[in-house]
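Recall the central idea of this unit: under ordinary conditions, the amino acid sequence of a chain determines the structure it adopts. In this exercise we apply that idea directly, starting from the sequence alone.
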Amino acid sequence: MSEAKGGRGAQLKHTGLRPGWTTGACATAATTAAYTALLTGEFPDPVTITLPRGQTPAFALAAEELAAGHAMAAVVKDAGDDPDVTHGALIRSTVRLLPPGSGVVFRAGEGVGTITLPGLPLPVGEPAINPVPREMMRDHVALVAGRHGATGDVEVTISVDHGEEIARSTWNPRLGILGGLSILGTTGIVVPYSCSAWIDSIRRGVDVARAAGRTHVAGCTGSTSEKTVVTEYGLPEDALLDMGDFAGAVLKYVRRHPVDRLTICGGFAKLSKLAAGHLDLHSARSQVNKQFLADLAREGGAAESLAAEVEQANTGLAALQLCTAAGVPLGDLVASRARDEALGVLRGAPVVVDVICIDRAGTVVGRSDPAGP
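Accordingly, the structure predicted from this sequence is:
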């Protein structure tokens, strides 16, 4: 496992949560150890690296191999207290010497994906080793070469044990990253529950859709809403954005990188939060506002007695059912208000927006007309 300088038990200030290390940091540590062994015959264990913001974590080696012409070192990914699917994965780096002038060449080993679609930070055909981890590895190769009088011309092959299987639980297949995981990280540190990886995946999803020429994309809160928009519009997989609770992340990125049309689809209760002005729809960070729903019901013609029942309803779905039984189109009203909130975040970007509300079975219970600037 990896170990932070100053003790593995270090916690994030104010949270009590233990941070972890990105796949990029682990790959850098493994590469540093393997190249050092290739030049000296000895693996540094633990191996210390310097992260982009100056931290100097040390990583214990989980495996090592030194043979004629190459060296391999491996580190176990420790994601700290973050619910990261790559936690516990074995990240390997195999380093081979290249002729002077070759530079550092990266290869995708078993369990590391290859880019197959345009729109990502790397060209099609390249290993899915992101730019910052590449820079970290180049810097550390140069440091090791400088210490031992070498040229720093090497081939670095990164692999992840069972990476192809793990990648099925990530966005990689949808983004056209095939064969395994991506080697990620901009700071080297995994901040527990920061949601940065999910938001980054949303952004890459927009990039891939735009590069593929998609003019209509859909931000969906889950798999049921994805099925709904496929049924409604026949959208291909690379036009579907796994928005989750991060409506704001979708809208802010689409504002800067517009598409012709954006459909937002999700559960009625979640989208009622967007309608009320919340951009983070997670239950821990925003709640269904029954007073807001009661006011919308009044706008839709509900009697005061019905509005009072809506305000006292146990759940958003119960409020919807009360209004449906009385012929008040609360679902449509929520969808329309959510669309208007989305347009407000888009700030005049050339994007037409529509919103679809569904119930847990995927039945459409509300929809807005499409509207744009």
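The longest strand covers residues 90-97.
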